[in-house]
UniProtKB/TrEMBL annotation, chain A:
It comes from Pseudooceanicola antarcticus. InterPro entries: ATP_synth_F0_asu (IPR000568), ATP_synth_F0_asu_AS (IPR023011), ATP_synth_F0_asu_bact/mt (IPR045083), F0_ATP_A_sf (IPR035908). GO terms for cellular component: plasma membrane; proton-transporting ATP synthase complex. The gene is atpB. It is a multi-pass membrane protein. The keyword Cell membrane applies. Key component of the proton channel; it plays a direct role in the translocation of protons across the membrane. The chain crosses the membrane at residues 35-59, 96-120, 126-147, 197-221, 227-245. PANTHER family: ATP SYNTHASE SUBUNIT A. Belongs to the ATPase A chain family. This is ATP synthase subunit a. Keywords: ATP synthesis, Cell membrane, CF(0), Hydrogen ion transport, Ion transport, Membrane, Transmembrane, Transmembrane helix, Transport.
From TrEMBL, chain B:
The record marks E61 as: Reversibly protonated during proton transport. Belongs to the ATPase C chain family. Coiled coil: none annotated. The gene is atpE. InterPro entries: ATP_synth_F0_csu, ATP_synth_F0_csu_sf, ATPase_proteolipid_c-like_dom, F/V-ATP_Csub_sf. This is ATP synthase subunit c. It is a multi-pass membrane protein.
UniProtKB/TrEMBL annotation, chain C:
F-type ATPases have 2 components, F(1) - the catalytic core - and F(0) - the membrane proton channel. F(1) has five subunits: alpha(3), beta(3), gamma(1), delta(1), epsilon(1). F(0) has three main subunits: a(1), b(2) and c(10-14). The alpha and beta chains form an alternating ring which encloses part of the gamma chain. F(1) is attached to F(0) by a central stalk formed by the gamma and epsilon chains, while a peripheral stalk is formed by the delta and b chains. Keywords: ATP synthesis, Cell membrane, CF(0), Coiled coil, Hydrogen ion transport, Hydrolase, Ion transport, Membrane, Transmembrane, Transmembrane helix, Transport. Pfam families: ATP-synt_B (PF00430). This is ATP synthase subunit b. It is found in: Cell membrane; Endomembrane system. GO terms for cellular component: endomembrane system; plasma membrane; proton-transporting ATP synthase complex. It comes from the Bacteria.
Length: 253, 78, 180
């Protein structure tokens, strides 16, 4: 009943609704989404695992001195994230390299798989990115307190600033610290969602004969941009994780 | 009729919020442009600062994404 | 007309409710978070247990191989340098030998030349001496003949003038004149 009304509404304006692609629906019938239901989220996350497995395990199974193409890509990804962690967080940040690499691989593959036509983009959902960002935020905060105790609060007390300004700066620092997970999560989901929604909007225009060449060209352009965004957002998420990790490891402001 | 006015206000609000993304565009362009002018003065130091470039772009862009989010919330959630 | 717009608005509102922003449909959050955590744990285990140690080992291995190869290349380079030095040395030796041979030959030739010159000189000197002796002999012969002629002429002259003189006196007088 609801879907019927929905379909009728669509027929009058756009061919499809630009946000329909983000609907979470069960794969094997039913409409209820329980926490254990196997949904399209499950499917695309499983495909992400498969992609990571294919690149990082099957690709490197040769363990060759002179790498094959797959192994070369896996090594490139490894070296890229390893260097990032080392440069930004310092040598002692390398202990957390596996977790950061996990984040990077998950986000980059979820973004890229989400670019396939008819796919579902798991990273476009706030539920996913908020959990990712909160995990980083809580992990980094707890790590900071475990490593430095109350010295970690020195992060908010800018000792290089003139005395009267320090409380004001401390308030600003605390606010910016707690805004971190918000911007961290919304940046990723917002970028991915915005790109996909814009592509869908152009795809809706493509049904109108007069503007369809323009809109198809626009889809091509946006798609190229989205490929770029998929990588850049994974990179940015990872590098910000490294920056926050550096703050936890070396809180001296 | 009341519903129509509410719809009208909603869509006007969405349009106004979208202006915020222009600000983010200017911010990101500013970051990239300044990076480029600095990089051309001292190309040898540029490679080590690309991480900073992306962090700066990410921060500048985040605010635009916030305004986009507000637009989406107005469109679909309010 | 009014009912139509009303229907449309209601339809739109309904659509927004059902499809509006699936991200804000909190009933699906539990599902997504559950599967996300499962996914992250699986990826973490795959990476930290299998992939990362393997890639790290391959990279370390390769770095070791490259270092070894560079060391081997350095060794070979050193060898090549040594070989070049040996070659240079052999070349220099050969050159020195050749020049010494040239020097010896030249000296020998010079010696021969000197000997030949000396011999020739001696021969020439002998010939000269011989000639000089002949000339002296001829000159002596000439002097004796002149004395004889002079003595005979003097004796003729003396006799023609009517004087008498012994041969000894004439000879003494001629030879004293010839000498004086």
């Amino acid at each position: 009943m609801a879907t019927e009304a929905h379909g009728a509404e669509e027929g009058s304006s756009l061919v499809f609704h630009p946000m329909d692609q983000f609907i979470v629906k069960p794969l094997f019938g039913g409409t209820e989404v329980h926490w254990y239901t196997i949904t399209n989220v499950t499917l695309w996350m499983a495909l992400t695992i498969v992609a990571v497995l294919a690149l990082m395990v099957l690709g490197t199974s040769g363990k060759k001195q002179v790498p094959s193409r797959g192994q070369s890509m896996a090594e490139m990804a490894y070296g890229f994230v390893y260097k990032m962690v080392e440069d930004v967080s310092g040598k002692d940040g390398l202990r957390y390299f596996p977790y950061i690499f996990t984040l990077f691989m998950f986000i980059v593959f979820a973004n890229v798989l989400g670019l396939l036509p008819m796919s579902f983009t798991t990273t476009s959902h706030f539920a996913v990115t908020v959990v990712l960002a909160l995990a980083v935020f809580l992990g980094v905060t707890i790590l900071g307190f475990v490593l430095h105790g109350t010295h970690f609060l020195g992060l908010f007390w800018v000792s290089s600033a003139p005395g009267p300004l320090r409380p004001v700066l401390a308030v600003i620092e605390i606010i910016s610290y707690f805004v971190r997970p918000v911007s961290h999560s919304i940046r990723l989901a917002g970028n991915v969602m915005a790109g996909h929604a814009v592509i869908k909007v152009f795809a809706g225009f493509a049904a109108i004969a007069a503007v369809s060449p323009v809109s198809i060209l626009a889809i091509v352009g946006m798609y190229g941009l989205e490929v770029l965004v998929a990588f850049i957002q994974a990179y940015v998420f990872t590098i910000l994780t490294c920056v926050y990790l550096k703050d936890a490891l070396h809180p001296a402001h | 009729m009341e519903g129509d006015i509410a719809e009208l206000g909603k869509y006007i609000g969405v349009g106004l919020t979208a202006i915020g993304m222009g600000g983010a565009a200017m911010g990101v362009g500013n970051v990239a442009g300044n990076f480029l002018s600095g990089a051309l003065r001292n190309p040898s130091a540029a490679a080590s600062q690309t991480a900073t470039l992306f962090i700066g772009m990410a921060f500048a862009e985040a605010l635009g994404i916030f305004s986009f989010l507000v637009a989406l919330l107005l469109m679909f959630a309010v | 007309m009014a009912t139509e717009t009303h229907d449309a608005v209601e339809g739109a509102a309904h659509a927004a409710e059902s499809a509006g922003m699936p991200q804000l449909d909190f009933s699906t959050w539990g599902n997504q978070i559950f599967w996300l955590i499962v996914t992250l744990v699986v990826i973490y285990l795959i990476l930290s247990k299998i992939a990362l140690p393997r890639v790290g080992a391959v990279l370390a291995d390769r770095a070791g191989t490259i270092a070894n190869n560079i060391a081997a290349a350095d060794e070979l380079k050193q060898k090549a340098k040594d070989a070049e030095a040996a070659y240079d040395k052999a070349l220099a030796d050969a050159r020195a030998e050749a020049s010494s041979i040239v020097e010896a030959t030249r000296a020998e030739n010079a010696e021969k030349l000197k000997a030949a010159t000396a011999e020739a000189d001696a021969k020439i000197a002998a010939k000269t001496a011989e000639g000089e002796a002949a000339i002296a002999e001829i000159r002596a012969g000439a002097a004796v003949a002149a004395e004889t002629v002079a003595r005979e002429a003097a004796a003729e002259i003396v006799s023609a003038m009517g004087f008498k003189a012994s041969d000894e006196e004439i000879a003494a007088g001629v030879s004293s004149r010839l000498k004086g």
